[in-house]
Specification:
Structural class: alpha+beta
Distance between the termini: 72 Å
Low-confidence stretches: 251-255
Strand order of the largest sheet: 3-4-2-1-12-11
Shape: elongated
Number of helices: 12
Number of domains: 2
CATH topology of the largest domain: Deoxyribonuclease I, Chain A
Length: 369
């Protein structure tokens, strides 16, 4: 009886060790998956999405081995955390907030406004998204999914400019149309916008723009992005939500039938868009660079890694926690970003939890070194 029990324990422990090693290898692969283009390997894109799940699994193994006091097995997962340290620092940063913000900073806000909720803006009934931006105190505002109409039932270009009259300068670059609504990628600034243009890459309702600003005598390049979305329908998202709430083979089949093809196509399109944006950034001749926007991809993704290049991720530098910016249907990821050149420093990068859109706004202070 004792021998049989001992055999069971050995088999059980061997299973746990093997599973632990597999999770560790997948975690390491996930942490470095953003170096590989989805055009070459779709597996890398899915591994990047799995990073937080693999992190939690690895942490559970550490707690288990500590609980049963098997220290040598604990080292397996601890070594994995050390190998993936940069990825953890980028995905789950923790920084103390600066209480006394210097005077010589600028506040940058990026916000996917989801068409401003497709609501008008009047004095008696202000549009909450427009009002949030007006009250934000930001010096530069990068807006994605800016939908403007021509009738009084919608927010018009004139009404938006008037409502944000504290911004003397603006750039509204058309992206596409849907019915009577015109979509654009938009920048509002308290500092002069010297020039603006759209970055050339293929997309119907997404786009990026590049601008040169004069900020207190400094030439600053600003890039505003709205990269390719997954284009998941309400039905797709409901299947995904149902699967997470009730994990079953039936729900899994529905998710598998509707989502993977769209994910794969979007990953490949974003990869090419990211490369186009990175090429523009590489050719910038200004001393300072700020890159904002909705990347529709996680901090461990080819799009994020490619655009970031030698820039600094403001959330990784001065934010707290995972910084989730998308807030619907259990797709809880940080897909909005503010990057800056190394000759600037970010302070108090913050995700404001206001539910006026399917995205939360992201902002930070930037200080010129």
């Amino acid at each position: 009886m004792k021998n049989r029990l001992k055999t069971v324990i050995i088999v059980f422990r061997s299973f746990f060790v093997t599973t632990n090693v597999i999770v560790v290898l997948l975690l390491i692969a996930s942490a470095y998956s953003d170096r590989i283009s989805p055009v070459k390997s779709m597996l890398s894109a899915y591994l990047g999405l799995a990073f937080p799940i693999l992190t939690i699994m690895n942490l559970c193994f550490i707690l288990y081995w500590l609980f049963i006091q098997k220290w040598k097995y604990t080292l397996i997962s601890l070594i994995a955390f050390l190998i993936c340290f940069n990825a953890f620092e980028n995905y789950f940063p923790y920084h103390k907030r600066t209480k006394e913000v210097p005077d010589n900073v600028i506040k940058v806000l990026t916000y996917n406004v989801m068409g401003f909720g497709y609501k008008a803006h009047t004095k008696d009934m202000p549009n909450p998204t427009v009002q949030y931006i007006a009250d934000s105190g930001a010096d530069i505002v990068c807006i994605q999914e800016c939908a403007l109409g021509s009738s009084r039932d919608f927010l018009t270009t004139g009404k938006l400019i008037k409502a944000l009259s504290m911004y003397k300068y603006h750039s509204i670059i058309p992206i596409g149309t849907s019915g009577i609504l015109k979509f654009s990628i938009t920048v509002f600034s308290k500092y002069p916008i010297v020039k603006s243009r759209r970055i050339d890459y293929e997309s119907v309702f997404n786009g990026s723009s590049i601008h040169e600003l004069n900020i207190r005598g400094r030439r600053v390049t600003l890039v505003n992005n709205h990269l390719e979305s997954f284009k998941l329908t309400t039905e797709d998202k409901s299947h995904y939500s149902a699967f997470l709430k009730n994990i079953s083979s039936e729900n899994f089949d529905e998710v598998r039938a509707s989502i993977p093809q769209k994910l794969g196509n979007a990953f490949r399109i974003r990869a090419k868009q990211a490369e186009a944006v990175a090429k523009e950034i590489k050719n910038v001749d200004t001393e300072y660079i700020i890159v904002c926007g909705d990347f529709n991809d996680t901090p461990i993704s080819y799009a994020h890694h490619t655009i970031k290049g030698n820039l600094i991720d403001s959330h990784a530098e001065s934010g707290r926690g995972p910084g989730i910016t998308y807030n619907e249907n259990f797709f809880w990821f940080r897909i909005d970003n503010i990057f800056h050149s190394a000759n600037m420093e970010s302070l108090n990068c913050t995700v404001d939890k206001v539910r006026y859109s399917d995205h939360y706004p992201l902002w930070c202070y930037l200080q010129f070194k």
